[in-house]
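pinned: reference chain
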Amino acid sequence: MKTLLRTLLYLALVVWLGAEIFFPVVAAITFGTLQPDTHTAGTIVGQLLRILHGMGLVSGLIILALLALAPAWGIYKSRSVLAPMILVVIMLAFTSYSQYGMIPAMERDRITAGGAIDAVPPSSPYRAHFNKLHNRSEHVEEAILLLGIATIILIARAETTRT
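pinned: its structure tokens
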């Protein structure tokens, strides 16, 4: 039973972080393939980002639940799961902020600008705000990935201090 629960924990981490690692590759290929049509590429990447966030939110909740129950099941010591749980909560907060804050704001900017953000001049306040949010979105995704790697390290460390 302990092996099954640890396997589920690692699987949830692998799904989330694997998607985080693979997403920029898919985005780069999409924009490269659809080079002249950045609007279509952006629409595709935006949909993929929503899927990534959904996977992250589900995986994060599973990770939290398994880490919360692990000490009771004798898998890890209570103290050893606290730091990973805090990191996962931060990852979930960043994912939620991107999904429910930044993406809708970027979409509003795009629609207000007339549908294709690249079609408006760089001096447009909508394009400037969109670009600012896009840059912030990249940093948030990078932070999620780094926090995820730190979470894996802490969980691996907890393996060595199991009860």
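why pinned: The mean pLDDT is 91. The chain has one domain: 2-160.
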